[in-house]
Specification:
4-stranded antiparallel beta sheet; Bacterial Protein-export protein SecB; alpha+beta; 4 helices; 39% helix; 165 residues; single chain
Length: 165
């Protein structure tokens, strides 16, 4: 049985193991407005769907616990028309226990890895509610949370530069 060298032992101590556990998930708010059905319109329509995603994260009172919220807004219009078919708003939250992430890496970790864990559940909820609303199920494409995070950083930097000028 070989002993670890002092360099290996120091490297193991310097790089703490990242721990992430999902403590819970829940729907904070859900709204599905079937505009087409309310107007009494029927017939086959080709939906065009616009999706907006917003993320939020906050520290909880308990040490190493965070709440991450993914807010989806879907707006569907009939292809070639301005008629709105349906509106769907979903605020889905996850409670996470996270340890071993460096302080300067915590924000990107929360805004990228946590939503990535929640996304399959969001996709299922959106699919079920649109199907139950009388439309073909909407199967959301994967969301690139890294690109979303980078775009938000660039947007904030641009705003800061405008206010500084």
């Amino acid at each position: 049985m070989a002993d670890e060298s002092p360099a290996e032992n120091t490297a193991a101590q310097a790089a703490p193991q990242i721990q992430m556990r999902v403590l819970g998930q829940f729907i904070r708010d859900l709204s599905f407005e079937n505009v087409m059905a309310q107007k009494g319109v029927s017939g086959d329509v080709q939906p065009e769907i616009a999706v907006q995603v917003n993320l939020d994260a906050k520290k909880r009172p308990t040490e190493h616990q965070y709440e991450v919220s993914v807010k989806l807004n879907l707006k569907s219009k009939a292809k070639g028309l301005e008629d709105i078919l349906f509106l769907c708003e979903l605020d889905y939250c996850g409670l996470f226990h996270i340890e071993g992430v460096a302080e300067d890496q915590l924000h990107p970790f929360l805004m990228i890895e946590s939503p990535r864990m929640l996304f399959p559940f969001l996709r299922r909820i959106v699919s079920d509610i649109t199907r139950d609303g009388g439309y073909p199920p909407v199967n959301l494409d994967n969301i690139d949370f890294v690109a979303l995070y980078r775009n938000e950083l660039m947007r904030r930097q641009a705003e800061t530069q405008k206010t500084d000028a």
